[in-house]
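Section 3.1: Structural characterization of target chains.
Under the original work plan, the team committed to producing a structural model for every single-chain target entering the pipeline before any wet-lab resources were allocated. The record below documents one such target. The sequence was received from the expression subgroup and is listed exactly as submitted; it comprises 109 residues.
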Amino acid sequence: MLNYSVLNQVKTSVRSAVQSRNIGILAPCFQKAVDPIQQLFLDKIREYRQKSNDEKNLVEPSPALQTELKSELEKVARQYGGKEGEDMTKFPTFKFEDPTIDPIKMETK
């Protein structure tokens, strides 16, 4: 006959051992890149991050790309009723005012 308490203890110990071993799956993520291609990829990503933090617009855009961006922004402004010179990349600000309500005049007789 099986002893269920022993079986439960074995199951619990196996479960805790498996859960503590999950860190081994992430080990390659914590290693430094030794492969030259990996290192080049990481260097390029760091360079792009540095350039994108310095500039608010596109990173190293070509004149054709800048012209296309400008024309698309003008098209959006026309399509959605933007005013001349309005920045269509900003989120619109809304101002809601409470309506004035006439008080109810109740006269008692």
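The chain has four helices and no strands.
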